[in-house]
Amino acid sequence: MKISFYPILLAVNLHLLIHGFAEGRTNGNEELPMHDHTVKTIKSKDGDVIDCIDIYKQPTLQHPLLKNHTIQMKPSILMEQMKGDESEFKIKQTWNEAGKCPDGTVPILRTRKAVGFPTRRHMQSADRNFNFQNEQQEIAFAISDRGTYYGVSAHLNTWNPKVENDNEFTNAQISVQGSPQSSTNKFEIIEFGWTVYPKLFYDNQSRLFAYYTLNGYETGSYNYMGNGFVQVDKTVYLGSSLHPVSQINGQQFALDFYLYRDPAFNNWWLQIRDKRIGYFPGSLFNNLKKSADVVYWGGKVLNTRGAGHHTTTQMGSGRSPAEGFQRASYFRNLKIVDGSYQFRQPNKIYPLVNKNNCYDIQLYNGRSDWGKAFFYGGSGLSATCS
């Protein structure tokens, strides 16, 4: 299918590997350094170490653009929430079983200095016929028409896909993009979803993640690493593991992900169901300060060909989208935020895939209560994917 709109840089970035800090857990006998201004430390049974930090002294507020920042404790408007099957909402965070952060503090996952994380630019542009050049970046997305958007949301199930080696990752995300308005601007993108990324988190668990770039992926940051994200909620943090996850032919576990701009302060809020985790301050952005011009939903894999062939890293459940419910992974109830600041169904979505013999997407309209929806994913290396 040819889609006749403008060239874009998709959040189809990626970093073979990023910046000088890795988020995480204890690594062998190594102690992770405690954050400054820690009030309480919680050690989760899954190995994570979480510091409860004075909300007004969290690391992000050391960013040069945020030193005089006034924390927005909640959005100025309350967005409508999706109503889904309650059986899909049983995901919990293991760390809450070990304790809770006191009032006036926020949870931040401990970090340590990492070795061997060279910064490398891995991005990919799409021309008007959606031709791709980056062979390491493999995607199965649904994308909107170009327009003016103030947010994006979806209901998506969570899985624990296999990742072949520590340098690769797989994720599921909702994203907003602000395209450059002049030759001096660059693409600004925010991604929000779940990921399995061993080199970043030292394990193979599905975890919440957010990522932002201000310059088309020349640089960018995960979660709290780049001092861009302001944490507000004290019960959910970026980087937390998700339990349980969906099973083939079994129970499906899912979450509502929301990413939207606050009209009063220009901050981009991240929300899971009714938990408003925090936001990326509007003062960080130029192109995204007022709105996004493209939004998209879907899965992404980094294929390094580390064993000399296509990766076996799975996307979603690792099954073909043709297998459908309880086997393939899905996004449903896709929504955008328009000028009325209401979530509504997009007029059209388009499949965007660059290697459909490895990972694919199948738009779905078989249930009215699913709205705009699609199945996506794949196994990676196979008889048809090499």
Average of the residue pLDDT scores: 84
Rg over CA atoms: 19 Å
Helical content (DSSP H or I, runs of 4+): under 10%
In whole angstroms, the N-to-C terminal distance is 24 Å
What pattern of helices and strands is seen along the backbone? EEEEEEEEEEEHEEEEEEEEEEEE
Enumerate the spans where pLDDT stays under 50 for 5 or more consecutive residues.
1-24, 112-133
Shape: globular
Determine the structural class based on helices, strands and strand pairing: mainly beta
In terms of DSSP E residues, the strand content is: 25-35%
Based on DSSP secondary structure assignment, what is the total number of beta strands? 23
Major sheet description: 9 strands, antiparallel
Per DSSP, the total helix count is 1
Task: Please outline what is shown here.
This protein has 386 residues and is mainly β. It has one helix spanning 198-201; strands at residues 8-9, 21-23, 38-43, 49-54, 105-109, 111-113, 125-126, 137-143, 151-157, 170-178, 188-196, 207-213, 221-222, 230-231, 254-261, 268-272, 275-280, 294-302, 329-337, 343-344, 350-353, 360-364, 373-377.
